[in-house]
Automatic annotation (TrEMBL):
Its EC number is 2.7.3.9. One of its GO terms (cellular component) is cytoplasm. Belongs to the PEP-utilizing enzyme family. It comes from Halonotius aquaticus. GO terms for molecular function: kinase activity; metal ion binding; phosphoenolpyruvate-protein phosphotransferase activity. The gene is ptsP. This is Phosphoenolpyruvate-protein phosphotransferase. GO terms for biological process: phosphoenolpyruvate-dependent sugar phosphotransferase system. The chain holds residues 239 to 561 of 561 of the full protein.
Amino acid sequence: AGGVDAPVVEETVSTADGVEIEVAANIGGEAELDPAVARGADGIGLFRSEFLFLDRESPPDEAEQYDAITTALAAFPDDRVVVRTLDIGGDKAVPYLDLPEETNPFLGQRGIRLSLGAHSDLFETQLRALLRAAASEHGDDLAVMFPMATQIEEVAAAIERVESVAADLDGEGVDYAMPELGVMIETPAAAFLADSLAERLDFLSIGTNDLTQYVMAVDRENDAVADYHDPLHPAVLRAIDRTVSAADGNDAWVGMCGEMAGDPDLTALLVGLGLDELSMSAVTVPAVKQQVQETATSAARDLADDALACETRAEVLDVLDES
Ligand code: PEP
Ligand code: MG
């Protein structure tokens, strides 16, 4: 499985029995846009907006962020572009923000916690740029998602901020539109609350890098315990399954944008688990598209059911080997 020489397919692909799966790209810098287009990505499933804030001395202003977002939208004029709001803290330090040192940064002020707390100013500027970009030429497929959520109140507060920014723009007579809104499922709390989250939002996007870290209580950067950081652990698979069911039951779409999504050996499993979109480093897009086309959903569902019934990671690996 998973040929590295898979052909580039520009259009969205379907499974052998006709279920469309979006295969999108993760973007961590403007230079990654052209290669993602060249590899046939169906839009952007994760635009890591924090790259706009790194390696510089002050944050980008609204105009610079608007330019970066509209550039990404223009690269994929007919496809969805999902921009994640600022996800700093944890492994993503930004020196000029002067955040206090933390003993456990991965358990500290990151993502939406900062956007609603110490850096609500940056959040507001970012939301202004995003809502304006949603009204730009290719903006109707813009989607915005919030990282590191653990509480319903956070998501409610984030939605309120979006609405208040919209009201401000309205008052100023500035053109804006409402993008689709979603949340990343990357904490156990979010996975357990996925139902309530999906009820309030248009989509969920599973970040398996962090979700695995937090479900398994394992530092994603610590090589000594790297074995524990495996999304094939049954606990992580069940968290994914729970999230997909919550989205399906609430009319939300569900994607995956962690590393797991880009492993062509896992495409059949992920199709079977019911993901609507897989987003990954552009380099693996052709191989994953090829796997989608070779997968039949009924067999994939059986495979997922078998994997979900496993009690150990070793059993999951056996199930995958036998498939
Ligand atoms: C994830 O956590 O899986 C994810 C996609 O976000 P990041 O790797 O940027 O934390
Ligand atoms: Mg993450």
